[in-house]
Design goal:
Elements: E1 14-20, H1 45-62, E2 66-72, E3 87-90, E4 94-97, H2 103-106, H3 111-120, E5 125-128, H4 141-144, E6 145-148, E7 153-157, H5 164-174, E8 177-181, E9 198-200, E10 204-207, H6 215-227, E11 231-234, H7 237-241, E12 248-252, E13 255-261, H8 262-265, H9 270-276, E14 281-285, H10 288-291, H11 297-300, E15 302-304
Parallel strand pairs: 1-2, 4-5, 7-8, 10-11, 13-14
Antiparallel strand pairs: 1-15, 3-4, 6-7, 9-10, 12-13
Protein name: Citrulline utilization hydrolase CtlX
Pfam families: DDAH_eukar
Keywords: Hydrolase
């Protein structure tokens, strides 16, 4: 039985999700995303992906998580089901919009999503980094970064999708300390997004430690996570390849849940499950079709760390120097 816990700024109670009507695997992003699977029969992908997101939304809502669901009926945004890459929200009323590497992914940015956030939540400013795309500088949101909202650390695997200049600008604006490292899969291929390698929840952190190249840096990451009071759940390469690191902690009406895919859940060992469930309940979601595109549950969820209009004061830490909208 999981004990009752107070709310955590790490676990948002509301999320944004996008339901695709014309889902397909994005060939433009396949070069550096080894998690994509394009060699299987593609029949029925659209309807299966639509149904998987529908069921995932129902499951989250049944646990008391507020889901703002947007529809994508377009045919030129194959990765629209992964909104966490193009925007993020932050306590104090701040929203970030990110520069994307793939041209097809830049079309995912939707200002109707931003306008909804302004209507429903207290948004002070929108900081738009997308202009950095013209300079070849990319930072793909909470795919490129795994954010510790409690200890104010931005963990980031070095890659073409995580430019150090863009990362430094984000961390300066939003008061995070960058912790950059190199990581590779068991075949020596660089990891493309940090959030397939690690998940930081309130009481635990799931990390594929063996995939972090530099031993000293690996120990620094472990020390930093443990110093913040978290248990380390070490994932092996097989578990990472099955998306066990691609999870997100959310606040439900009966406590916190860790949303992850059924694929990920099924490769966790019993002792790892017990370790995680000391702080939150596991909530597996079935999205095998979506996972063929190279992302899992965490990628489909953009957390809302904003104060609802008419709500209580936000417990989160405000950004350092709010910037003007759409720089």
């Amino acid at each position: 039985m999981i004990p009752a816990r107070s709310r955590s700024i790490q676990a948002p109670a509301a999320v944004v999700m996008v339901r695709p009507h014309n889902f397909t695997v994005n060939t433009e992003t396949a070069a550096d995303n080894t998690f994509q699977r394009m060699d299987e029969d593609s029949g029925g992908l659209k309807s299966r992906a639509y149904d998987e997101i529908s069921r995932a939304v129902d499951a989250l809502r049944s646990h008391g998580v507020t889901v703002h669901l947007f529809e994508d009926e377009g045919t030129d945004t194959p990765d629209s089901v992964f909104p966490n890459n193009w925007f993020s929200t932050h306590g104090g009323g701040h929203v970030a919009v990110y520069p994307m590497k793939a041209v097809s992914r830049r079309r995912e940015r939707r200002w109707d999503v931003i306008e909804m956030l302004k209507r429903e939540y207290r948004v002070q400013d929108v900081i738009d980094y997308s202009g950095l795309e013209m300079d070849g500088l990319f930072l793909e949101g909470t795919g490129a970064m795994v954010l510790d909202h409690i200890d104010r650390v931005a963990y980031a695997v070095r890659s073409d999708r995580t430019d150090p200049i863009a990362l430094e600008r984000f961390c300066t604006h939003f008061n995070f300390e960058p912790m950059v490292f190199d990581a590779r899969d068991e075949n020596g291929v660089p990891i493309y997004h940090t959030n397939v390698l690690m998940c930081v929840a309130t009481d635990a952190a799931l990390v594929g430690l063996s995939m972090i190249d530099n031993r000293v840096r690996r120990e620094e990451i472990v020390s930093r996570l443990e110093a913040s009071g978290r248990d380390i759940v070490e994932l092996d390469a097989r578990q990472v390849s099955h998306f066990a690191g691609n999870a997100i902690e959310l606040q439900g009406t009966s406590g916190r849940v860790l949303a992850l895919s059924r694929t990920a859940h099924d490769v966790l060992r019993p002792e790892q499950v017990a370790q995680i469930e000391r702080g939150c309940r596991l909530l597996p979601l079935d999205i095998p079709t979506i996972e063929r595109a190279g992302g899992s549950v965490r990628c489909t969820i953009a957390g809302v760390h904003l104060l609802p209009r008419g709500g209580l004061r936000s417990p989160d830490i405000p950004a350092r120097q709010p910037a003007v909208a759409r720089q």
